[in-house]
Amino acid sequence: MNTFHFHIPGIRISDYTYELPDHRIARYPLPVRHDSKLLLYRDQVISDHHFYEISALLPPDSLMVFNNTRVVPARMFFRKETGALIEVFCLEPASPKEYILAFAQQASCTWYCVVGNAKRWKTGHLPLYNPGNDPKLAAIGLSASIIGQEADRYLVRFSWSAPMPFSAVMEASGKVPIPPYLKREARESDVERYQTVYARNRGSVAAPTAGLHFSEKILAELQQKGIGMAELTLHVGAGTFRPVKTPYIRDHIMHSEPFRVSLEFLKRLAVHRGPVVSVGTTSCRCLESLYYLGLQAAAGKDPSFVGQWEPYVTSPHMSYGEALEHLAGYLERKGTCFLDASTQIIIAPSYRFLTTDILVTNYHQPNSTLLLLVASLTGESWRKIYDHALAGDYRFLSYGDSCLLYGNKS
Question: Is 293 helix (H, G, I), strand (E, B) or coil?
Fold first, then answer.
């Protein structure tokens, strides 16, 4: 295992953008998940395929890592006495802070939210907007009130009278938070299609979109080939849609996202010797962050957070496997089977990947940190990949087509 000393990249975002015509953005998913097109980049060569071929395009000793987070219907609408509608977009729980506990709450809980039309809502409890006078919604008795503000986020307390957990309240009252660039309202079909078939753990406000291409048929084929499959949970935040607005990457503030991995997963990953395939950029960010948490554990610290620039100012002094062994040892001493942490890591050109060999991903927005991640893995070939996709009529963004990208070191 080589060790590297990274440097904070002084690169310009204008060097990592491209022209995306509006008509190339896929507004809706294809009828069949695995029928999407798949661009393969390997050994600096590009070829065209379909997603249903993916098992044949991967080495048999691969370990694929999936993000099993589940998108929650995080958009809710409330109504003032004047008739004005207030949109409340739940970002993450504030009290209690743990997702499992927040969703299990009865009667009330508090979340960090983005509030639309906030200037028209200063105080008071607002009832849920129920335009059809649905008796089931009325019986829940949901209301919301602003109790504080932190920067551009509001603290909103939700209260309800029905004897049900907040997860059920949200499922009944909320709407699927499809990306703003789709420029349409969510439909009933989005409830299923803006969700992976292996989604389990509630918490995301955006889908890990690389996983949307996997069907039960494809998962079965991967298993039949003997390709390893493992899961982690990283809850995708609204920050994933935030473009880089600063001229230089070093001035951009990266969003933070919580994740959970199991002790069993850490032990399995520590001894795996074949290629590691990150299914999506969220899985990739989590996998790369684990190394730095392992360094924290080795130093006797509680591993809980990886800062934005930690990989660039830290000199690695152990292998990835050794770092995971320290994390596993930490969990065993604590008597717990799960590591809960969060990461603000930004993966930008000059980054050297510690575990991700192959990436399954979609096509990302211009001026985005996700495009920087792709460029980190593929080098200057990222532009050739995107030019090929644009010329080849590939569909872009969340409901678009996919890539299978072998890192230049693979």
Answer: helix
Place of tokens 């709450």: 105
Alpha helix locations (H) across 194-315?
216-225, 263-271, 281-298, 310-313
| Sequence-ordered alpha helix ranges (H) in 77-184 | 99-104, 135-140, 166-173
Task: Please give the CATH number for the structural domain made up of 13-70+195-406.
Answer: 3.40.1780.10
Q: Quote the pLDDT of residue 241.
A: 72
Contact at 8 Å (CB) between 403 and 363? yes
- Distance CA(226)–CA(249), nearest Å, equals 40
Per-residue pLDDT at 1:
34
Give the lowest-confidence range in 17-26, 100-109, 195-204, 231-240: 231-240
Q: In whole angstroms, how far apart are CA 118 and each of 84, 109, 333?
A: 11, 20, 47
pLDDT digits (tens, 9 = 90+) for 348-386: 998 989 999 999 999 999 999 999 999 999 999 999 999
Among candidate residues 269, 261, 207, the one with its CA nearest the CA of residue 237 = 207
- Taking residue 255's Cβ as centre, other Cβ atoms within 10 Å add up to 17
CA–CA gap between residue 312 and residue 9 (Å, rounded): 8
CB distance 247 to 12 below 8 Å: yes
Residue 112 forms beta bridges with which residues?
92, 155
Distance CA 265, CA 358 (A): 18
Mark out the alpha helices in 252-380 (DSSP H runs): 263-271, 281-298, 310-313, 320-334, 369-378
φ/ψ of 48, rounded to 5, equals: -105, 135
- Domain coordinates of the chain in residue numbers? 13-70+195-406, 74-174
Backbone φ and ψ of 147, nearest 5°: -120, 0
Going by C-alpha positions, the residue among 27, 74, 22, 32 that lies closest to residue 398 is 27
For 244-295, the pLDDT digits (tens) are: 889 999 899 898 999 999 999 999 999 999 999 999 999 999 999 999 999 9
Neighbours of 96 (CB within 10 A): 14
Give residues with Cβ within 8 angstroms of 200, minimum separation 6.
Answer: 68, 69, 70, 231, 233
pTM above 0.85, yes or no: yes
